[in-house]
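Bit of a strange request maybe. I'm writing a small parser for structure token strings and I need a real example to test against, not something I typed by hand. Could someone generate the tokens for this chain?
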Amino acid sequence: MNSKLKRGLGIGCVVLFIGFMILLGGTVYFAKNMGKEYQVVKELEEKLAADLGPSDKLPVGFNGVPDSQVMEKFLGVREATSEWRTNVETSFAELLGPEGQEEATGFAHFLKVVKASRDLAPVFSGFWTSRNHALLDQEMGMGQYIYIYCLTYYSWLEIDPSDGARDAQSFLAGMGATGTTENLDDSVNAEEERRAWARTQVNILMLPLMQQAAREASSGTSEAELFWAEALQTEIAAMQDDEARVPFAGTLPAEIRQRLEAYRSQLEGSYSVTVNPVELIFEDTWEGEE
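Reply from user aminoacidic:
Good idea to test on real output. This should exercise your parser:
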């Protein structure tokens, strides 16, 4: 796995959250809780990698076109994880509310941290467990899921990859996490920096997947396949020139847009601003540098 990806990935703040929580007083509880809860997640992802390939691989024969079979699998995963997305949204809303923003010091702060530890560890792990079970059920690999998520939400619906990360940072600051307050700078420059960082992570995630899709499309013989292969190769070159470029930013071919239009309501209905920062976190994309 690309070491640059491991340093930066998260497309949000969950990795930062875990790191900051471990630095806070009394957070051994959180670390132990997450370790116990995450073991199931890790085992499922190991099975996913063994059965369907790692997160930087697409299935053999997939040229990147979101056909009906692929979209049905993707939407099946989205439907299967809907309850856990709601759980994440509810937990974050409670912890980000006025009560969660009250200043606390000493033992009161410790209790605040423990509450967040108790509440969030099983929620995050529950969401990832649900997602991984759904991927196995649908026989959809991590790489293909990442590819379709980015293509539909970021490229087609033009949702910014940083969507939702601001609330996660607000939560961290409310918890008193060292180093987060300055990151909550609301200036235009600071917001652009956050967006550029998130876009860069999507670029890193998608580039190897799109390169594989381009190779598959190039082996086709139809005019449509060769047109798509050329579009992919052109976009890959643009992404390599601009590391903060979101794939097909405003340039997604009309045929792909038309294919996705049939699924608009389901895609929009299953999107969550709150959960976006943790949707694409897999063990082999944030386990740390080698």
